Amino acid sequence: MLRGALRHSAGHTAALLLCSLASAAATLAEPAVLGRTLDLLLAGDDRAARWTALCAALITADLFLDAAVAQLTGVTNARTTRRLRIRGVAGLLRAAPHDAARFPPGDLATRLTANAAEAGTVPAGAAATAASVLPPLGGLVALFLIDWRTGAAFLAGVPALWLLLRAFAADSSDSVRHYQAAQSRIAARLVEALAGARTVAAAGTAAHERRRVLEPLPELAREGRRMWRVYGRAVARSGVLLPLLVCLVLAVGGLRLASGAIGVGELLAVSRYAALAAGVGAVAGLLGALVRGRAAARRVAEPLGLPPLPYGDGALPAGGPGTVELRGVSVERDGAAVLRDVDVVLPGGARVAVVGRSGAGKSVFASVAGRLTDPDAGEVLLDGVRLDSLGEACLRREVGYAFARPALFGATVGDALAFGVDTPPDGALRAAARAAGADGFVERLPAGYDTPTDRAPLSGGELQRLGLARAFAHTGRLLILDDATSSLDTVTEREVERALARDVRPGTRLVVAHRLSSAARADLVVWLEEGRVRAVGAHAALWRDPEYRAVFAVRDPSGSDGPAGAGGRGGGTGSTCAEACAEVIGEAVGDVTGTTCGPRLPVEGAEAEGPEVVAAGEPSAGAAPPGGAAGAGRGAGR
Fold first, then answer.
1. Tens digit of each residue's pLDDT (9 = 90 or more) over 431-465
2. Residue 478 forms beta bridges with which residues?
3. What is the dihedral of CA 427, 431, 437, 443, to 10 degrees?
4. Roughly how many angstroms between the first and final C-alpha of the chain, as a whole number?
């Protein structure tokens, strides 16, 4: 990734390097020209005027080159940082959501802000470091050219200087790495605490959260002090070593002047070149900045090395019904199998409920069916075409999603509903909002659909209805509802389902179901257990299995709990079959808590929504379904 950013700033970096090298060359030429000018002035030579003008030209060029280096450094840093952030965000969005979720939001924010800014200094820092080596090396060569003894005097201290710089680079790299890691942990914990601010306030654990967020602070302070100690030791040692070397070179140069081997101008040049050679100590500061930048670049690149979700250029057959087929699909997360050898066909145009206990793999099943992630084995087809062969726009236009906790993107509520591959017309957006039961409360907002999203006070149910409205506005041949009605009351959920059947483009509906009523109203139920398909069939047929009833925590008609125990979301621990009936009906039908369920319990008024509602069956023959042959609600609503 850093190499890509370097290529993006290659022109500015090359110009920066050239200007830096030209400035270094001018700096190297100055002592020789000054020394020659001084000798000519002392000798009263007529050429002194030309050499004086040359000195002035070199000094002026050096000033302009330094200004150009400063300008190019700023531009290069800004361009590289911008490129890193753009590539970083794009890389995260191209990756599968579960891969990106490995990094906490606070940690990612630190990597893409502070770390990216520091990593952005690497190209300019590398150019500056490369150019900064030229004056010391050139100064050392010049000392040998003037008098080899002066060069040898300086060279005597180079091994010690090399060991100093090497130790500085190693110690600095380690301390910077630990410092940046502690910084990211604080940011990640702070974002978590802010996201759960209401929970923290309700629990009265603000002091505990403050301690938890700031727990890495001592490590941060320790590593920060260590960084300064490493830098301070390097500066102190070079501050002693380099002046000693300069003094040694001047002493040797003075002796050579006294013996007549060199002139006054050459001694002046020796003093300047010795100072330039001693400038190798300044490389320590540039090297430290380069080390910090490279450490930051590694942190920026780490989450962005996630594999992208590739797309093909294929298309779906026109007018397809939305048949979904999973063939031998297996998915692993952190070495554990989440889905195992799933083979299932979801008929086009059907309403399919995916049920199972917590951790059964329902959401992963939904992610694979709509290709938010790829299976580790097997293949997924939509209307006979492999999902991974489709173009991104084609896939996202034909597969819609609604989630339990939708995120709203856009400046206004209307923009949030229009967010997608295509922008629906305003009339379609309002129709989708009405279908999701959102139009009423949106119209009551201060500016209606033009209300800024950050100024729209929304409850959890209202936010979920906006997510449904966005999905309805972009519905293709497959619509996946991943627990997308969990915050809705039963009556509102039923109204939304009616509108979905009447007012939204027909197609296949895949519903991750937790409520018994959602499964009862489905055409087909996929029952998952520990990542495998336990059974596929109508809810009516599956309801005869006590273990299926136990998924919804519905008690066996005999009065004992199902074999899998209670604890589902259908009716809570100890739910009776009568309570299950009440949930399936979805609306008030009177107090049925004490009702004795028979083999088939018709409910008065149920005809308006479909066939009769069926409750649990006789204990001796197994329970009959509360939803009829294919689940209640498949009549007029569909």
1. 999 888 888 899 988 899 999 988 888 888 888 88
2. 399, 508
3. 20
4. 51
Contact between 630 and 539 (Cβ < 8 Å): yes
**Rounded Cα distance, 168 and 235, in Å:** 10
Residue 477 is classified by DSSP as: S
What would the pLDDT profile of 308-322 be if each residue is shown by its tens digit? Answer: 888 999 999 998 899
* Residue 354 bridge partners (DSSP): 512, 526
Pairing of strands 508-512, 351-355: parallel
Token pair for residue 190? 């702070």
CA triple 275-278-284, angle to 5 deg: 135
| Closest C-alpha among 80, 66, 65 to residue 121 | 80
Q: Where are the alpha helices (DSSP H) in 156-216?
A: 158-195, 197-203, 206-213
Amino acid identity at 552: F
- Please give the full DSSP string across 326-369, using - where no structure is assigned: EEEEEEEETTEEEEEEEEEEE-TT-EEEEE-STTSSHHHHHHHH
The Cα-based distances of 380 to 323, 390, 531, 589 in angstroms read 11, 11, 16, 42
Q: What is the DSSP string of 46-69?
A: TTHHHHHHHHHHHHHHHHHHHHHH
* DSSP assigned state of 420: S
Burial of 113 (C-beta count, 10 Å sphere; 0-12/13-18/19+): middle
